[in-house]
Design brief:
The chain has 371 residues and is mainly beta. 14% of the residues lie in helices and 47% in strands. Strand 10 and strand 11 form a beta hairpin. The longest helix is centred in the N-terminal third of the chain and has 21 residues. The two termini are 34 Å apart.
């Protein structure tokens, strides 16, 4: 029942945005936001943009190559933006408040920057996924009988790095390939030396693509899990059974971005080269996210809410629920990653590898850097 109440509360939180006339309001919001960026960050005072169905056309006659790349990256991060077009000509003035379709001109560039080590990402990070590689630190209070203490500190170090990006022919569909890696560690803050409990290592090669509001992400990855020395010493007497957990997996996720900052996604994982050998291979993952298109101007921050759900064959397809909510600060960007302050809730089988058969429940507070 607790799980259903949680889903009902999440639905109520997201319900108001579902009844707004999406495309018109979205384009108005994007145009206003982008105009502010042009004025205050690039000293562009004249009207120099059009927006239609999330596609932004910008005039860049007075900007050099580095400024153009920065402009594309920043505008692409506005909630609801599907593509950015740069042109040397002045876009046609809109006919009405709905921002009519811009004229077609030569020398347009669609989407994000292309080539080696490009800016941005075609597939956006999963905000509530406990195992999406990124930099974070969180305090978690375990409300269940936890494997090693009630007060746990969790940190992660990781990144998703695109190596190459290109368009499919002359279309606006883009693809990229790169690497992804992360380290996830849990520490018992109740122990005298804040002992290490568990560390998971993830390494992957990935490819992703984007076509308008649709994006896809696929990776082949390795994950292994290791217990801390102090944890093993404390549990020698009760003969804690360590598992040599290690496997490779093929992961596929599909995502669709709805208007007004809403996003849905889903996919699945199949494992191979599993240890232990009897580890069941299949799992599913799906979720919903909301990045508010409206922000608090006094602090340049916007509300965000996300829920991630996983079902593992190993655990009889029971649902693991991860929910995070808080604010994202836009004036603290580092390499395009934004600082997020999030309250979190988890109920399900532990995401910490060595304890994948242990049911846990926790609430927490964390800081994250995510794109």
């Amino acid at each position: 029942m607790d799980r259903f109440r949680l889903l009902a509360v999440l639905g109520i939180l997201l319900m108001p945005v579902c009844f707004v006339h999406s495309a018109e309001v979205d384009d108005r919001y994007i145009a206003g936001y982008a105009t502010g960026i042009l004025k205050y960050s690039f000293n562009q005072d004249q009207p120099s943009l059009n927006v239609r169905e999330g596609v932004v056309t910008l005039r860049v006659a007075d900007l050099d190559a580095s400024e153009q790349a920065a402009l594309v990256r920043i505008v692409s991060e506005i909630p609801g933006v599907q593509a950015v077009k740069l042109t040397k000509a002045t876009p046609q003035a809109p006919e009405d408040a709905r921002f009519s379709k811009p004229i077609q001109v030569a020398e347009e560039k669609d989407g994000l920057s292309t080539g080696f080590l490009p800016d941005g990402h075609l597939f956006k990070a999963l905000l509530a996924d406990p195992r999406w590689p990124h930099f974070s630190a969180a305090y978690r209070n375990y409300r269940s009988n936890n494997f090693d203490g009630e007060h746990i500190g969790s940190v992660s170090f990781g990144e998703t790095i695109p190596f190459y990006r290109a368009n499919f022919g002359q279309t606006a569909v883009q693809w990229e390939a790169g690497i992804q890696g992360g380290i996830f560690s849990d520490f018992n803050l109740g122990a005298s030396s804040s002992d290490l409990v568990n560390t998971d290592f993830i390494g992957a090669i990935y490819s992703s693509l984007r076509a308008g509001r649709f994006s896809a992400f696929a990776r082949i990855y390795h994950q292994s899990s290791h217990l801390g020395d102090e944890f093993l010493l404390r549990h020698v007497s009760d003969k804690f059974k360590r598992v040599n957990l290690s496997y490779e997996g093929l992961d596929l996720k599909l995502s669709y971005e709805l208007p007004l900052g809403l996003r849905i996604y889903g996919g699945g994982v199949g494992l191979f080269h599993r240890e232990p050998a009897d580890l069941k291979p299949w799992s599913t993952q799906y979720g919903i996210e909301f990045r508010s298109p409206w922000r608090f101007e006094f602090a340049a921050m916007r509300p965000i809410v996300a829920a991630d759900f996983k079902n593992f064959e190993e655990n009889d397809w029971n649902t693991d629920v991860s929910v995070r909510a808080g604010v994202e600060f836009e004036n603290t960007q580092v390499l395009g990653r934004k600082l997020q302050l999030l309250v979190e809730y988890f109920n399900g089988f532990s995401p910490s590898g060595q304890f994948y058969n242990e049911k846990v429940e926790y609430i927490g507070l964390g800081v994250h850097y995510l794109f």
